[in-house]
Amino acid sequence: MMLKSRQKRGFTLIELLVVIAIIAVLAAILFPVYSRVREKSRQSSCLSNLRQIGTALRSYIEDHTPYFPYSTAPSVCPVIIGQVFRPGWVGNSLQPYMKNIQLFQCPSGRHVWVNDLTPDANDPMLNDPNDCPQVAYRVDYSYNYRVYSSDLPGYDPLGFRSDFSLVEQPTQLAMFWDSANPWMMWGNTLVFWTLDVTWFENKQFDRTHWHNETNNFLFADGHAKAMKFTNMTWANFFNYGPEDAQYNYPITRRP
């Protein structure tokens, strides 16, 4: 008795379309989850950077008791920690306390060359403070100059130098945060963009909320935290105490 041979049946067009549709649905569900998980990892690295910057800042304060590094106002020069072509008055203030200057680059930031100088791989970054810059690198953080005021002790015409002991709420006062502005660290000098309160009022933080719709902040007491800029208050950027009317006022609006 002869057995009938079975004929192999392939997938029909409808079955193939169903499989493709299922794969597409799964991809649509899983890809955003993967993106959020990946960004969460980058955010953790960024927070680690800020904590280490905070450690360097506190070490500087301890060695220069009890002052912060110098700052400048935007009307004077839109940079802080170091000024372009100014011989090192504060140019290398934090560098001796840091393992590497790559800490100033956020994993989610836009790492680009931001000047027309020819990059030199052999250029000693942060070398001689009297030497002119040879190469520029992107810095992904801004530094808060608004904690300083000309009526505080330690005022200097080159900038404002505040006493750490005068900070009203160290756990609330933001010192560094994510920045999307194309400022840089030169080959021998760290350069940070300083921002006036109008930057907050114009809601420019939404340019840097790449950490799953949040921004990373380093506070004066050394802790780093991810927050939505819409939840920030004036006390997060100015040296206000709870008794001040502006303390809990949203930073996106002027009191």
Structure report:
By secondary structure, the chain is an alpha+beta fold. It has one domain. The chain has two helices and eight strands. It has helices at residues 13-63, 197-201; strands spanning 79-80, 136-138, 141-143, 174-178, 184-186, 192-193, 215-219, 224-227. The strands form three sheets. Strands 3-4-7-8 form a four-stranded antiparallel beta sheet, covered by helices on one side. Strands 1-6 form a two-stranded antiparallel ribbon. Residues 73-91, 113-136, 149-159 and 182-199 have low confidence and may be disordered.
Gyration radius (Cα, Å) is 25 Å
Q: What is the molecular shape?
A: elongated
Distance between the termini: 97 Å
Number of helices: 2
For the largest beta sheet, what order do the strands appear in spatially?
3-4-7-8
- Summarize the main sheet: 4 strands, antiparallel
Please provide the count of β strands.
8
Query: Approximately how much helix is present in the residues?
Result: 10-25%
Keywords:
single chain, about 260 residues, alpha+beta, 4-stranded antiparallel sheet, two-stranded antiparallel ribbon, 8 strands
Question: TL;DR?
Answer:
With 255 residues, the protein is an alpha+beta fold.
Per-chain topology:
Layout: H1 13-63, E1 79-80, E2 136-138, E3 141-143, E4 174-178, E5 184-186, E6 192-193, H2 197-201, E7 215-219, E8 224-227
Antiparallel strand pairs: 1-6, 2-5, 3-4, 4-7, 7-8
